[in-house]
Amino acid sequence: MQIAPSILSADFARLADEVAVIGDTADWVHVDVMDNHFVPNLTFGLSTVKALLKHTALPLDCHLMIEEPDRHAPAYAEAGARSVTFHAEAAQAPVRLARALRSAGARAGLAIKPATPIDPYADLLPEIDTVLVMTVEPGFGGQSFLDIMLPKIRRARQLIRDGEHAVWVQVDGGVDADTIEQCAEAGADVFVAGNSVYGCDDPAEAVVRLREAAVKAGDVAWWTH
Ligand code: DX5
Ligand code: ZN
Q1: CA dist., res. 81 & res. 60, Å (int)
Q2: Do residues 116 and 89 make contact, with C-beta atoms less than 8 angstroms apart?
Q3: pLDDT in tens, 157-184
């Protein structure tokens, strides 16, 4: 069970400090790259990612909510992001892109929006390292968790169990102390959390609590046995 706090909910003017706060408790720093086209919001780009890499030992998990990921995503892997996730809805050649990310040394992630089913991507699972099931419409932090996505999380885990490749199932959007348990029960093992970490007085402690809840739910989950 891994926790990836999203700096979308952090203070953008103090990013290095905000990342340092979760340095001892988090597994990843989740960086939401938005281009104002694929989603109606604009955040960070490659130069911010390069700057952040100099300020943290935590691996960066770049979630690219951008158009033309085939063109832009490999540069994030080449810069040193350890995980680079592109959207299935935006990619022209997802297999070629996933291979490019892997050969640049990153984990390759495939993200799907709430209205995108996982089944059409089942055959691609050997080519990717992480499936990101969006549990809100991408674009903004602080939205409510869509529990209608729980069957998709379960389905993703089932497809992975039926196959031969170990693929992480990441959830992103509205993850908090309550919803994280539902996600872990359904099949998720990597949890993005923005508001429920950076909205707290003690973000490091919030990460610890989220992990405890995920581990507890995962211990009795159908897919861990
Ligand atoms: C939304 C982003 C998320 C966002 C989650 O499009 O992909 O990573 O930061 O924020 P919370 O946890 O506040 O829903
Ligand atoms: Zn994200």
Answers
A1: 5
A2: yes
A3: 999 999 999 999 999 999 999 999 999 9
Residues listed for the chain:
225
Yes or no: say if 102 and 128 are a contact pair by the CB < 8 Å rule.
Answer: no
Q: In ligand 1, which atom is closest to the CA atom of 6? A: 9
Domain boundaries, the chain: 2-220
pLDDT digits (tens, 9 = 90+) for 94-116: 999 999 999 999 999 999 999 99
For residue 146, the CA-to-ligand 2 centroid distance in Å is 15
The reported pLDDT for the residue numbered 134 is: 99
Residue reference for tokens 């996730």: 85
Topology annotation, domain 2-220: TIM Barrel (3.20.20)
From 27, 35, 129, 172, the catalytic residue: 172
Q: Where are the beta strands (DSSP E) in the chain?
A: 2-5, 29-34, 60-65, 83-87, 107-112, 130-134, 168-172, 190-193
> Which residue is listed with tokens 């891994």?
2
What pLDDT score does 161 carry? 96
